[in-house]
Please model this.
Amino acid sequence: MLTTSLPGGTWTLGGLTVTRFGYGAMQLAGPGVMGPPADRDGALAVLRTAVELGITHIDTSAAYGPTVTNQLIREALHPYPDSLHIVTKVGANRDPQGGWPPARDPQSLRRSVHENLETLGLDVLDLVNLRLGDAAGPLPGSLADAFETLADLQRQGLIRHLGVSNATPEQVAEAQAIAPIVCVQNMYNLAHRRDDELIDALAGQGVAYVPFFPLGGFSPLQSSVLSTVAARLEATPMSVALAWLLRRSPNILLIPGTSSATHLRENIAGAALSLSNDDLAELDTIGR
Model:
């Protein structure tokens, strides 16, 4: 059994045990998640530091760069330790303007899965999330054709586990009717709590919930309540926000991103912050 000193302990994604504190690789690409990093050696160092600190859950996508973060992960960490599990997503491409046009037709999905396999240097992907909606958030509509394509690739042995990203509760249920899912990856943080009911329902099913933009995304979380609690605890607001997420539900897995090994260590230390019941009650007023 995997043991870790990282905050939050571990969670099992299907048959894969991962640390609840993981790492999101998106910020390793260049500005706008396009092109190579300004500091390639620094990017490689962040990845190696993550594994050295015991992180066993790295989130990436061939769309980041495109392919930049996958190539960095392969250069830094391949051959991968048995304990390390790399999660990727498909369902969007990049255009020359840095946009994220959808790519959820069967041909595009198959091409994306093989691109992830090739750029990561893997024979099978541990977990693939189907990205839905658009940059503004989830959109209603059936995912059946796209998710059935991924389920077919899973039956072929190219994918171990499936998940969905940027999905509505109805799309989560639709996916589960097609094939088992082990995680949902949606936007969620102290100030954006649209998925509260979904998180609780997934926890009851043993399905992980992975919030992207756990610290607010490209605009960091701003809240006078958060700042007040952080000042009282002599901590940073971002530390409090991460610690709150780990306390929110045991099925929440964190993948905060950074391009700095020092910042990565700070995020880990921050997530380990102890919050009292009074702190939690005060923080709960932010998103409600």
Remarks:
- Residues 36 and 71 are 10 Å apart (CA to CA).
- The first helix runs from residue 40 to 52.
- The longest strand covers residues 125-131.
- The chain is about 40% helix and 15% strand.
